[in-house]
Design goal:
By secondary structure, this protein is mainly alpha-helical. About 65% of the residues lie in helices and about 5% in strands. It has 24 helices and five strands. A hairpin with a 2-residue loop joins strand 4 (about 500) and strand 5. Helix 2 packs antiparallel against helix 3 and helix 14 (about 270-295) runs antiparallel to helix 15. The longest helix is centred in the middle third of the chain and has 25 residues, at about 270-295.
Length: about 500
């Protein structure tokens, strides 16, 4: 007697509860033969035992082999798992599953299956040769050398022995790298790991190991590159994803770091170190974003405070701290806080981050320029030009500082009005009104009137130049704005639009 069920592609089934006797009528036998034929002709329909029945190991193994042949590796692995559960002492079952894991590039599981097969049958030559080959591919060169020695004893003509020399050279290179890592010679270790990778260029483990060495050397670009190659070989490698994210972090490429750590947490949501790094970076990015928004809104003091809080999250994150200190310096410049701007720029220069050095030099120069320390400003702009000769900001700044230095030895219209060189038109007009009222000849004692007249004319001349955008631009470029090529020392008020005076009668008017 026999019972039979059919499983359809949608997962449903057709159960035949009646037990058919193969010795019964021809009609019963014909029905069974038709059902058997159906399982071969209709895709996705296959026969399984009815409740209480057990599929044979041979049938499971045959289905697993068929799944492998059609490229359904996941299904084949599941079926081989069942086969091994039912027949755990057959070394060939592990070998078959090894091939499926290898197809999936799951090298760890593949190696484990080969080792299981060899434990059951140490003389299994095919498995030994494949294990030696896989060990070399994974960068486990010492193990590969040991297996090849055993393989040579079994068959000195085995095809896998052609890689024996490479395995030995790789083993020596890795042993040397290990000794140098222990001594802290990271440059030497990286060189030896490079020699090993020339022999074994598809080892995710060795790529991760060299990436770790590059991280110790603070060579973050190479660390990112090595970890990236490892991820291509093993896309679910949490160590590689974590390491690449860390490399991007120290390059201040925060979005890329977050993407890699986010991917790692998909494979292990509770991974302790990745989770900690992810949360820390999220905190930094939030504070930085808030500070950027405050700066754009003109809330410079609040932006500075928020950026300071962001840099305090990780005191070793120099790639972020350096540029952020530059932003803090720029915020101080916006508020004309020259000394604070200089202090922040100096902090940025003290940080181990070359990417922010040029911007820090320029902030330092601008702060000295604002503080009317023109000779020092020229010095810093020259340093910026020397560092990066093609930097237009440095060259333009140097020219501006040199003009300011020259003008400081003559008449400095900005100084006359008591405003910084970056003052806007509103600030210039406000300063002019205050100074004109202070030095108006009608407002001073008779014995001070002559001196007041001279100051009043200086103030009027300064305002005439600085209140007109075109004339001010010429003045800032060091061009003559007197109209007589007589130098800026000569005061002029003839036809002055803001002041008319004769005897003791002074009038002044303000432009709108």
């Amino acid at each position: 007697m026999s019972a039979l069920s059919l499983v359809t592609p949608g997962g449903g089934g057709l159960a035949f509860g009646r037990m058919f006797d193969f010795g019964a009528s021809p009609a019963s036998l014909g029905l069974l033969l038709s059902l058997a034929l159906l399982t071969h002709l209709v895709p996705g329909v296959h026969a399984v035992p009815a409740a209480g029945g057990t599929m044979s190991v041979g049938k499971l193994r045959s289905d697993a082999d068929a799944a492998m042949a059609t490229g359904d590796v996941e299904k084949s692995i599941k079926l081989y798992n069942q086969v091994i559960d039912m027949e755990p002492e057959n070394e060939r079952n592990y070998y078959k599953r090894y091939r499926a894991h290898l197809r999936k590039r799951n090298h760890g599981a593949a190696l484990s299956d080969l080792s299981a097969a060899l434990r059951l049958k140490p003389t299994y030559k095919t498995a030994l040769g494949q294990r030696a080959k896989l060990e070399l591919q994974m960068g486990r060169c010492s193990d590969a050398v040991s297996d090849m020695k055993m393989l040579r004893q079994m068959d000195e003509n085995a095809s896998e022995l052609k890689d024996e020399k490479s395995a030995i050279e790789c083993m020596h290179a890795l042993n040397a790298a290990g000794r140098k890592e222990k001594d802290g010679d990271w440059h030497g270790a990286r060189e030896d790991l490079g020699r090993a990778l020339q022999l074994v260029d598809n080892s995710a483990d060795l790529l991760i190991r060299r990436a770790q060495t590059n991280m110790r050397l603070k060579d973050y670009f190479d660390a990112v590159a090595d970890a990236g190659r490892a991820i291509k070989l093993e896309s679910d490698s949490i160590p590689a994803l974590e390491l690449r994210g860390e490399g991007y972090y120290f390059l201040a490429e925060h979005e890329m770091a977050m993407n890699h750590w986010r991917q790692a947490l998909k494979f292990d949501p509770e991974h302790k170190s990745v989770k900690s790094k992810y949360r820390q970076l999220k905190k930094i990015m939030k504070k930085d974003s808030n500070a950027q928004e405050l700066f754009q809104q003109g809330q410079h003091a609040e932006a500075i405070e928020t950026w300071r809080a962001a840099t305090a999250v990780d005191a070793a994150h120099f790639a972020f701290i350096g540029p952020t200190l530059v932003l803090i310096s720029k915020a101080h410049l916006k508020m004309n806080e020259w000394q604070n701007a200089k202090d922040a720029a100096q902090e940025a220069l003290n940080v181990e981050n070359t990417d922010s050095e040029q911007d820090a030099r320029l902030c330092m120069a601008e702060a000295h320029l604002g503080a009317e320390e023109y000779d020092v400003a020229v010095h810093w702009y020259k340093k910026a030009v020397d560092a990066q000769g093609e930097d237009a900001r440095a060259k333009e700044g140097l020219k501006k500082a040199e003009i300011a230095l020259k003008q400081s030895k003559e008449i400095n219209y900005y100084k006359v009005l008591g405003v910084p060189r970056n003052a806007d038109s509103k600030a210039i007009k406000k300063a002019y009104k205050a100074m004109a009222l202070k030095y108006h000849p009608d407002k001073v004692a008779p014995d001070e009137r002559e001196k007041a007249e001279q100051e009043f004319m200086k103030i009027a001349s300064a305002y005439e130049v600085l209140s007109d955008d075109e004339t001010r631009a010429k003045y800032d470029r060091g061009e003559d704005v007197t109209g007589n090529n007589g130098g800026q020392q000569q005061q002029h008020h003839q036809g002055h639009p803001f002041m008319h005076h004769g005897g003791q009668n002074f009038q002044f008017h303000f432009r709108h």
